[in-house]
Amino acid sequence: AAGHVNPTTGGGIPGAAKSAHWAVKRAVEAISEGDTSESALWSYNRDVMTDFGKKFAGIDLYNVWGTAHDVEELTDVVTAVPGQQLADALGRGTGSSMGLGLKLKTAVETFGHRETLGELYRVQRKAAELRDHYDRYPASPEAFEAWKEVRDGIMDDVYAITGADPKY
């Protein structure tokens, strides 16, 4: 569970605490039932992946997208899009409503970055799809390979959208 904490920032402590709780709970159950096999402990994986694992998996797609662009381009895009709308779109997959004036200003300021913003939109859709897929994390190790194939397909789509080199 301690592996969930970022040693540089200390981020991830809540996830590590949840993870430790789930690990102890599953271990006690497995020992009490006399079965410490992978199958008996598998629900720990499901707990992690359907909770904070899906969040991190979705966020990672934005990291993949970012590696396909240089810092100057990303800075231009981020400064051209109103901050609250960008945060809402990335965090929840929805945009805040924008008045006509703000829409026009944003359209002018993002001129020349339509392709990059289009990629970002498609990545955002894939992030939502990936989080939904993590909600279907298998209840047993036997179903993992089929689940992983779908996950890998989503990742392949993201690499195709962004042109980034595969990380894994």
Automatic annotation (TrEMBL):
Top-tier EC class: oxidoreductase
Keyword Thylakoid part of the UniProt annotation: no
Enzyme Commission designation: 1.-.-.-
Molecular-function annotations in GO: oxidoreductase activity
Keywords carried by this UniProt record: Oxidoreductase
Key word Calcium present: no
InterPro entries reported in the protein's UniProt record: FAD/NAD-bd_sf (IPR036188), Geranylgeranyl_reductase (IPR050407)
Name of the protein: NAD(P)/FAD-dependent oxidoreductase
Native organism: Halobium palmae
